[in-house]
Predict the structure.
Amino acid sequence: MAHLLKKTDTTTKQRLIKFFALTLGIAILLNVVTIMVHVTIKRNYDRSMAQLLNLNQFYFQLDELNGHVRAYTQKGSEEEKESMESCREKMNDFLSKLNSRKENTVFRRDVTDVKGLIRTYEESLESVYQYMGQVQQERMQPELASKINQEYEKMQKVYQMIYDEFKTLEMEMIEDIGAERKMINEREHFYYAELAVMLILLLSIGMAYARKLANKINIAIDALTKASGEILSGKLLQFQCVEIPGEKIDAEMQLMVHAFNTMIAKIKQQMQEIEENASAD
């Protein structure tokens, strides 16, 4: 009996808890990995969207700056100059943020090309500042007007080149964002499919494990029920014991069978003692 009690240190309930804890741990681990991959892809998508916004803001500031340049060459207004400097600062800020897209070497190369064009554009702008300063000190002379027009035309050519590069960058980013969006959608579908498969798998494993435990319990219950029927039919004295191979039932069921056999043995012993006492009288 002591040996059987030791074997029941791990009960059926504890084994079930361990089994479901293990399967739940595996399920959580797989879900965490899937979610981490999904979050990484989503973060890249959000970063690309933010950079596309930066690119469009950059071009908006450049376009506004170019408009102020035209007005400045015509009027020489200090307000226009202040507006140009504000646009330049914002434009360069948006352009610097685009360089954070380090994983795409082609994109970085194109951004570097745009930066070179922006430097050329700003050099011409500084020349316009210089010539317009001379105009404010003295009257507009044909020579100064010609130089200002030359620089302005040069700036317009560079502006067109920047616009062409901008359209290339924009198309690259739109294509990348479309690919990332498609990947997110596919990942979401895979995640739901994986979750469904995992639930079905865990349910199947749980049912198989539960059926195995139920079979072990049923073997013992059926044997005890059959033995009880024989005893109730008046075959107590002929009854020996319930014997079930240990590998077919759990230790808890073995303990219950052992307790049943012990109880029947004591009842038979008591009946024999009663009969002996009756015969002696």
Residues 142-232 form the longest helix (91 residues). The radius of gyration is 44 Å.
